[in-house]
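Re: beginner question about structure tokens

> Can someone show what the tokenized structure looks like for a real chain? I only ever see the sequence side.

Sure, here's an example I had lying around. Input first:
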Amino acid sequence: MATTAPKVFLSYSHDSEPHKDWVLALATRLVANGVDVILDQWDLSLGSDLPRFMEQGLSSAERVLSVCTEPYVQKANAGRGGVGYEKMILTAQLMQDVTSERIIPVVRANTLTPPVPTFLSSRVHIDFRDDLAFEAKYAELIRDIHGQEVKPRPPLGANPFTVTTPAIAPVVSFGAERYLSPAIRGVVAFDYSNNNGRFTFGAGDMAFETAWSRAGGNSIHAYTDPPSIRSVAIAVGAQEISEIQDATQYDPSSRVRTPYLGEILIWQNTAGYFLATKVLSIQVRGPGNALDEVRLEYRIAPTKSSSFAE
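And the corresponding structure tokens:
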């Protein structure tokens, strides 16, 4: 296992602001888990030499994460733009050592077959298309970057009767970076008694740092205390998030709201975006329950829309 922080270059295409935010959230999580990430969003400033940044970054990095969205694959195959330039550099490096495992294709927002560029078609990729499987895939990725085998080879026993101690899966993180979901929709579950009751949905301008605390066995308190939150309201009468046509019609005048099971909260952040969270289940720590856990379905309305109708 490496004794120094591994250096990783993040190669991706600027498909959209939500995609850039997803890449930024991934890079932030990697840095929090001991990875030295080279990323244009924080390593470039106005007037920087972009080709020089790509050449130096790709040459100095021990690993390269190629975020393979459909536009990325198409640009790489066609040799267009910054992606095409990075592909040219990486192809030259692969020709020097075809056995290299430096490049990790990260598949995201992609329905192509195959979902990776031609020059990476022989490389094993990791699939981040399902946001609900983000934690499991992230754990696999961070182990690989740090040189820990995802499924380590078992030790060779002295004889058939030797009892070996099973390997214990390492805990990736107990830090605040575990309490976030960068996708704009999904289902999450978290311990609301940890991390000061905070959980962050989305990223960038669409980030909502929500705050929670115990209320009862079938209800939970939600607060507007975090600086990114402007207001919170209960969507009275709404059964599903998709039913909400206008998020501004609900009363946002209180600092704290207490939804019951099945109820939906409407949050607005200081950037003007709306988030809907539906309470699916609530668990209170006690006999038979190890955690204070809430499970939520959530959705962020894009383009600052107040409607969640599909």
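Each token stands for a local structural state, so reading them left to right follows the chain. The radius of gyration is 22 Å.
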